[in-house]
C-alpha cells in the first residue's frame, strides 16, 4: 500500500509543487533545475536517439528501424550479467564506434570491426585497447546503424562500461520498447506462440520493467531470470516486434499503481499469492488462482532424484547429524511453501521446500529442481525422489498457460485477465485505460 501511495504522490506532484513556488528566486531555481534535469535526461537517452536510425542487416526484424516512442519511452539500462565482473570484456561493431567519458569527451574510436578489449587498468580505472582511459566509466556508441557485439550477443543502443570491484561491468542502454522486442523472444518461443500470447507477454514484461525501475529503483535491471531474460538482437523476430508494436506503451495497473507483474514458466495447475515475492501484501490481481491451461507443459509435474550423500550434507548443515534418515513433506499439496521435515542421525528440523531446493541446487548444480512446490517425497535405494509441480515462482502469468490460451483463440486482454484478474491495461502518458480483447 505504501508503494501505491508513493506512485500517486509522484504522479501529481510536479505540477502542484511548481504552483507553490511563488517566490521569484524559487522560480528561477526551479527553471535552472529543469534545464539541468532536461540535459541529464537527454544525455541518458542518447542511445535511443541513435537506435532510432537502426535499419541495416541480415533479414527478419533486424531490417526494421528500432522502436522508440518519441517523448514517452523512458529507456532502460540492462546489466549484462554473464559478463559482470569479468577481468576483461571484448566488444566490436561492424560500422565502427566512438567512446566517450562521463563528460562527453571522446576517448577513442575505430571504424573497423576488430574486437576491442576493456579491462581494469588499476583500481577504479578502465583501459580501452590497452590504454588507460583515466576514467572509471565510459560509453561506447555505434557510429552507424549496426548493433554492438558484446561478449556472445549483439545489442541495440549503447554500452556503458564501468570499473567494478574486481573487473568490468557492462550495461546496455536501449529504448524500453526495443528492449521488449528481445525480452518477448527471450522469454517465449516466438515462432510457435500465438500473437495474443506474445502480446500478453509484452504487456507483462513492459509492466514488470517499469515496476522494477520506478517502484523498486532497480537500475540497471539484470538480463537474467532474476528479472527478465534478454539476449539482445538474437531473440528479436518479426512476431515479437509486432507484439510490442501492437501493445506499445501499454502496462497493467491496479488502483492507480503499476502492478508488480510477475510471471513464470509453468504454474503446475495453480498460481500462488505473490505476497512473499513482493515483500508486502499482494494486490488482488496477484493473489493466485487455478490455471487450467498448462497441463501439457513439460514441467507441469516433475520428479528429481536426490542421493543420500547430498541429503546427509544437508542434514549436517542443519546440525541434525552426519547422516539423513528421512525426508517427509509437511505441507499440503496446495501450499506453495511446503514444509519439509528432515530427520537426521542426531535430531529433526523443519525446513521450507524453498530452502531444501536451494541446498540441493547448491550441492548438485546438475540436478534440475524446477520449483519449490513439492507435492511428495518417496524413499529410494540411494536417497529420495522428490516430486513436485511447475517451473518458476508461480506468481502471476503462467507462460505455458498463456501460450495455450493464445493457441485456443483467446485475446491478450483475456489472457491478462485470467492471470492478473482485476488489473487494468493503461496506455500513454496520461494513463488512459484501454480495452483490449
Ligand atoms: Zn499454469
Write the layout of secondary structure elements.
Layout: H1 2-20, H2 24-44, H3 46-51, E1 76-79, E2 88-93, E3 97-101, E4 106-110, E5 116-122, E6 125-128, E7 131-135, E8 137-142, E9 148-150, E10 153-155, E11 158-163, E12 168-174, H4 176-187, H5 195-215, E13 221-222, H6 238-246, E14 251-254, E15 257-258, E16 263-264, E17 270-271, H7 275-278, E18 289-290, E19 301-306, H8 308-317, E20 324-329, E21 339-344, E22 347-352, H9 353-363, E23 374-380, E24 383-389, E25 397-398, H10 399-407, H11 412-419, E26 424-427, E27 432-433
Parallel strand pairs: 1-13, 16-25
Antiparallel strand pairs: 1-12, 2-5, 2-9, 3-4, 3-8, 5-6, 6-7, 8-11, 9-10, 11-12, 14-15, 14-26, 17-18, 19-24, 20-21, 21-22, 23-24, 26-27
Helix pairs in contact: 4-5, 4-6, 5-6, 5-10, 5-11, 8-9
What does the model show?
The chain folds into 3 domains: 99 residues, no CATH class; 133 residues, no CATH class; 89 residues, no CATH class. A hairpin with a 2-residue loop joins strand 23 and strand 24. It starts with a helix and ends with a strand. With 437 residues, it is α+β, with helices and mostly antiparallel strands. The longest helix is centred in the first third of the chain and has 21 residues. The radius of gyration is 24 Å and the shape is globular. The strands form 7 sheets. It has a 7-stranded mixed sheet with strand order 4-3-8-11-12-1-13. Strands 7-6-5-2-9-10 form a 6-stranded antiparallel sheet, with no helix packed on it. 30% of the residues lie in helices and 28% in strands. The site of zinc ion has 8 residues, from helix 10.
